[in-house]
Design brief:
By secondary structure, the protein is mostly helical. It is about 55% helix and about 5% strand. It has helices at about 5-25, 35-40, 65-70, 85-95, 95-100, 110-115, 140-155, 160-165, 170-185, 190-210, 230-240, 245-260; strands at about 40-45, 45, 215, 220.
Length: about 260
């Protein structure tokens, strides 16, 4: 149980953050991992006090850019390595109120595409060995990497994917950033998650093009974001000496060249 004095301190910090928003027009999470107060809000079963949602009084007022920033800086980003990335993104998009609001707004797909395309190709892979979403105000390499893979995930979910893949620039950008990630010398959790984010776009697109096997049960496709390795694909991978990601990038690049 949290002591009443600790609850008051947390509530005061949250009130101060809201007051600061009314003064400056910008909202920042008052309590994040690493702070003593963060520990107070947790127990063995999860969150006791919700400090990672945007106050309902202001969430509808925030601009698309503000909601995206708060998505990247959300403490839940630290959970991205606790699940398969596609599972994390789907849960995050339905549980975080900032994303719930953003994804229902008119023009959200063009907005997300513009934000994704604005990240330089060579910044798609982090040069850091950890994820720190709270460095957003200095545009660090770590922050840009997180922003890039979250945008890829958000553009791959059901609400956005069909519209996003109509944009040739997006598909080309995905391919180029996928290559940068593959060629990155680091082997951190952040890089592995970032590669999973690329797969969220590449795998469903290649499946739709009939270039990858799919698994169907009761008329519904199963595991749309996952690479299904049947006997033929297993033999292809074995003979090519490609890693799965190298094979996917090569196939995706060939498909792009033929399609456009």
């Amino acid at each position: 149980m949290i002591e009443s004095d600790s609850v008051k301190r947390v509530e005061q910090m949250m009130d101060q953050a809201l007051a600061q928003y009314y003064e400056t027009g910008e909202y920042h999470y008052p309590i994040v991992p690493g702070m003593e107060e963060w520990t107070m809000t947790q127990d063995r079963t999860g969150v006791v006090i919700d400090v990672i949602s945007i106050p309902e009084a202001i969430v509808q007022e925030l601009s698309n850019k503000q909601l995206l920033r708060l998505t990247v800086e959300n403490p839940n980003v630290y959970l991205a390595n606790a699940y398969p990335f596609h599972v994390f993104v789907q849960r995050f998009s339905t549980q975080f109120n900032g994303l719930q609001v953003l994804l229902t707004r008119d023009g959200v797909v063009p907005f997300l595409l513009d934000e994704y395309l604005s990240i330089p190709i060579d910044r798609a892979a982090s040069d850091r060995d950890h994820m720190s979403p709270f460095e957003g105000r200095n545009q660090s390499a770590s922050y840009l990497n997180i922003r890039n893979f979250l945008l890829e995930g958000l553009l791959a979910i059901d609400e956005t994917y069909a519209a996003a893949i109509l944009d040739q620039r997006f598909l080309q950008n995905v391919a180029e950033k996928y290559e940068v990630k593959l060629n990155s010398p680091e082997n951190s959790e952040s890089r592995l998650i970032s590669l999973e984010a690329s797969r969220m776009i590449v795998v469903p697109t290649l499946k739709q093009a009939g270039l990858l096997p799919i698994e169907v049960k009761d008329g519904q496709e199963r595991y749309p974001y996952e690479l299904i390795i049947d006997d033929a694909l297993y033999e292809t991978l074995s003979m090519s000496n490609y890693s799965e990601d190298e094979y996917l990038l090569d196939l995706f690049t060939q498909w792009l060249a033929a399609a456009y």
